[in-house]
Amino acid sequence: GFDGLEISAALPDGGDVSEHTVGELRRQLEGSGLPVLGVRGGGGLIHPRTVDAARSRWEQAIQFTAWVGSPTLNGNLCIGSHQDQPGHFVGDPLSQDGSRKASEENYERSASILRPLADRAADLGVGIALEVHQHSIIDTSWGATKFLALVDRPNVSINPDLGNIYWLYDEPEETSESAIVALAPFSGAYWHCKNLTRIHIPENRHAIFLQVQLHQGDIDYRFALAAMLDAGFDGTFALEGVRVGDQYERDGASLAYIRQVAEELS
């Protein structure tokens, strides 16, 4: 019952990316009734040592998105985290390369690099949805809206992933309700949705999160969808499904739930 897929900006077999090979993938997927509605790609732009490689990944992802026929690049500003240092895992008091430690220069520099990339994407008919994500300077509603204002491009919006906000720290910095109300006016194109159950271990200053179906977790998606619809959302609802078990049955139940809620709200 899904309308399409989100894929990474690479070929499934790891082959060379070209207009021909990506076009062939597009034909196969569209022929199966599952066109690509979102492409994952990008990278963090704050570190001088890695910024050139990240800029190249952005450029490649934008071109891939256009070739595969997707309207949206789900772009991230994530930095690769270090497993042997604090803040690598979700549910800790610290998140590496996050907004809590970011400087004004981190935001301004990243925005200055992203603007011409967004212009190139616009020339190709590609919209960019910036995913609110851990290990990036847009890991909260505050960081995301601040950065979006600095980029200031009409084809750039926010992907308000509430799950990434919820599991960012051991103690959530903001509620899912306040986050979605703040982000909804800037989130018209693409929306990652997953739900989680939080198990807090205060003596260890850590929380464990179990990914569950949309109607079973701690995030109230009835409230979230109402806030998005009130803000005029008419984009792509992207379900980040369960990772174990019968995904057809379990993700199908999440899809049925969100469709039912949408019908009731309308």
Task: Explain the overall architecture.
By secondary structure, this protein is α/β, with parallel strands linked by helices. The chain is built from 8 helices and 9 strands. The protein has helices at residues 19-31, 51-68, 104-123, 141-151, 162-166, 176-183, 221-230, 247-265, and strands spanning 5-8, 36-42, 72-76, 127-131, 156-159, 190-193, 195-201, 206-212, 236-239. The strands form 3 sheets. It has a 5-stranded parallel sheet with strand order 1-2-3-4-5. β7 and β8 form a beta hairpin. α2 (51-68) packs parallel to α3 and α3 (104-123) packs across α4 (141-151). It starts with a strand and ends with a helix.
Radius of gyration: 18 Å
State the order of secondary-structure elements, H for helix, E for strand: EHEHEHEHEHHEEEHEH
Strand segment count: 9
The average pLDDT is 96
Largest sheet: 5 strands, parallel
| Helical percentage | 25-40%
Low-pLDDT windows of residues: none
Overall 3D form: globular
Q: What count of helical segments does DSSP give?
A: 8
Ends apart, CA distance between termini: 20 Å
Strand order of the largest sheet: 1-2-3-4-5
What are the main properties of this structure?
about 270 residues; alpha/beta; about 20% strand; single chain; two-stranded parallel ribbon; 9 strands; 5-stranded parallel sheet
What's the layout of helices and strands?
Layout: E1 5-8, H1 19-31, E2 36-42, H2 51-68, E3 72-76, H3 104-123, E4 127-131, H4 141-151, E5 156-159, H5 162-166, H6 176-183, E6 190-193, E7 195-201, E8 206-212, H7 221-230, E9 236-239, H8 247-265
Parallel strand pairs: 1-2, 2-3, 3-4, 4-5, 6-9
Antiparallel strand pairs: 7-8
Helix pairs in contact: 2-3, 3-4, 4-6, 6-7, 7-8
